Amino acid sequence: MNLKKFLLPYFYASVIAALDLYIKYLIRTYNIQENVIIENFLTIDLTYNTGIAFGLFSEYTLVTYFFSVIVFSWLIFQFRNVKQNTIEFYSLILILGGAIGNLGERGWNLIFNNNGKVTDFVELLFIPSFNLADTYITFGICFLLFSEIKNK
Predict the structure, then answer these.
(1) How far out from the chain centre does Cα 10 lie?
(2) CA dist 78 to 25, 41, 64, 104, Å?
(3) What gap in Å lies between CA 144 and CA 129, rounded to an integer?
(4) By the number of CB atoms within 10 A of the CB, which of 97, 125, 144, 147 ranks highest?
(5) pLDDT tens digits, residue range 92-101?
(6) Residue 13 CB-density burial (10 A; 0-12 exposed, 13-18 middle, 19+ buried)
(7) Catalytic residues, which ones?
(8) Does residue 1 lie within any of the structural domains?
């Protein structure tokens, strides 16, 4: 495997993570509150989350951060075992990109005494607020499960 093929998934993941972080920055900078996009369906509303998915374990931000770093480290090495241009390959890129976005922001906010908050801003129907990185991770996991079921 040459260096270009080795670095390609990390480059893709970094690009989508940068998009997530930039959109979070814009939402915070312009303090977007209760901006209804589609009535009773989709609203952009700035909130913060110190927990993991849906605010779980919000009292244990530091513990969940270190656990997430361990999972993130494991995920990086998964690219050695997957063929390029497969559903599994792109699934891992989405999951890694989402992890970079959320872990990067949470790590920054832990260091600079903002309690490890992550910016959430999408309110969709009855689903608790989430961000673009959460969407990457969710779709990545769904595609990964689909890939696994298909290969069985």
Answers:
(1) 14
(2) 30, 36, 21, 20
(3) 23
(4) 97
(5) 999 999 999 9
(6) buried
(7) 120, 134
(8) no
Q: What is the DSSP letter of 119?
A: E
pTM comes to 0.92
Q: Which domain holds residue 122?
A: 8-151
110/106 Cα distance (integer angstroms): 6
**What is the pLDDT tens value at each position of the chain, 152 positions in all?**
577 778 999 999 999 999 999 999 999 999 999 999 999 999 999 999 988 876 777 888 888 899 889 989 999 888 888 998 999 999 999 999 999 999 999 999 999 988 899 999 999 998 989 999 999 999 999 999 999 998 87
Instruction: Give the H or E element holding residue 19.
Output: helix 3-29
Residue 139 placed within a domain = yes
Tell me whether residue 22 is in a domain.
yes
Residue 41 three-state SS = coil
Q: Which helix (H) or strand (E) holds 61?
A: helix 61-77
Cα–Cα dist 98/137, whole Å: 5
